[in-house]
Write a structure and sequence with these properties.
The complex is a heterodimer.
Chain A: H1 2-32, H2 39-56, H3 61-86, H4 95-116, E1 123-124, H5 127-130, E2 136-138, E3 141-143, H6 145-167, H7 169-179, H8 181-186, H9 191-217, E4 219-220, H10 224-239, H11 244-264, H12 270-284
Antiparallel strand pairs in A: 1-4, 2-3
Chain B: E1 16-25, E2 28-38, E3 43-48, H1 54-62, E4 69-74, E5 77-78, H2 84-90, E6 92-95, H3 107-114, H4 122-132, H5 134-138, H6 149-161, E7 167-171, H7 179-194, E8 198-203, H8 206-212, E9 215-220, E10 223-229, H9 230-235, H10 237-243
Parallel strand pairs in B: 3-8, 3-9, 6-7, 7-8
Antiparallel strand pairs in B: 1-2, 1-4, 4-5, 9-10
Helix pairs in contact in B: 3-6
The chains are: A mainly alpha, B alpha/beta.
Amino acid sequence: MQVFIAQILNGLSIGSVYMLLATAFNLLLLVAMIIHFSYPQVVVFCMYIIWLVLKITNNNVFFGILAGVSSAILFNIISAPLFQKIMKNREEVDINATMVLSMAIGWIITDVLSHAFNNGLPIQFPEEITGSKPLFRVGLISILPGQVLALSIGIIVVVGFFILLYKTKMGRAFRAIAEDPAGAKLVGIPLVKTGFQSYALSGALGGLTAVLLIMLFHSASPGLGEQVSHKVLAVSIVAGLGNLVGGLVVGLALGILEALVQGYVSGNWSNAIAFVVMLVIILVKPRGLFGVKV
Amino acid sequence: MEQNSTLVSGEKAPMLTVEEISVSYGHIQALKKISIEVYPQEIVVLIGANGAGKTTLLSSILGVKTPSSGKVVFEGKRIDKASVDRNVRAGLCLVPEGRGVFASMSVLDNLLLGAHHNLANKDKNLARVYEWFPFLYKRKDQIARTLSGGERQMLAIARALMSDPKLIMIDEPSLGLAPIIVNSIFDILITLNREGYTVLLAEQNAFKALNCAHRGYVLETGTISLSGPSSRLLNDPGVKAAYLGA
């Protein structure tokens, strides 16, 4: 029972990362109409930026987080014109062109990280940001502050995102474009400008995710982005592409599934088992558990 | 329903002038040097069969399609190269064919989308729209998908009004609606016109449309074959034979 509770907590905290990344992925898919499946690589890039800033500022956590979030927003805004340029038509998702560009961005980041930072060795984050002392320990269960923080930040950010989506002018424009881009254009919503807003917002989500990943993993390596990106793409497909609520549920569920497998199956089988389960779901429900929304 | 056609005045400057615009989709030329004018406070109707170019003309005016030649002038300014959102801000709006309502969003969200550039006046405009269409107030939190076809058409018109338009363009409002609903939609257009709105209407239902409009243009495969006051078009033997089923 103790293992179970510990692994559920573990799973929820890593699940909150998948949840945020799937939300950012879906937002870019629905509003900017791009398939940016290498987005987690951008997030890992921001982890490196945070690491660098922490080094420079002598472990000033505030500056580190600020740099991480703003670099993610900046990175997205800079890449937006590239995506804009490569798309044939602003009113539909151009899968081939945007996927190739996303892949390129992912590989460039992975290569830069493995050559330009720390000789390509994994980086370790200082205790100031990870807070490694367990909050409490009961038998096998030890709760790390990073886990609690990651889960609570994840929930707060998701709630904030949905408030923005349903209560603001920008969110209303997002939803209109997601439902019918041509119709949204007709009522006078500027597609390009609103698209840029979605790049900026998903950038903010990505920057916060970078902070959560630091608190959970305490380290990062150049290959981390690729691993996570496969999972986030799988989460989005299993949930149903473009289905925001589905992404949240499946993201959390994948986290829990992985943690339970780690807790009860010896050996490192969690990735394989998670993907087999997702494969079975896609075979049974090809449009995803919650339905495709694009 | 009939309105007098003497309102067309030579003294006032036209609100909208379309001058010899041509529009093509690939090799197919959808509009060939079309010219129309709409004067303030008029209801003007474009009549024509499916594929005659009515929808293309309306969307070219709004800026969805850019004409390959010719110009569109709205209130003295050229708008044929401007973006749709700029033209909406300038006072143009289009109620698209098949309503164009956002089915998964609430009635209120749909209305507010119409006010995307005009949120400062939203309370005033919402109050006015609710006064005209009381059912929209009762169902403001309902998802638009649950509305009937006629209600959706009215929601689309109400949404257009939220942008404080000067010229309302409506594409095929009678499409797929029961005759009694069609009548009330045309009554709404006449009421709007009396309130001071200028209306440009594209319609296959020529008899109803001509009865409510001041003037009309007949479109045939991308060109204007006939134009004039509604009363004259209603009595024209060619129009009668082709569009009025007489």
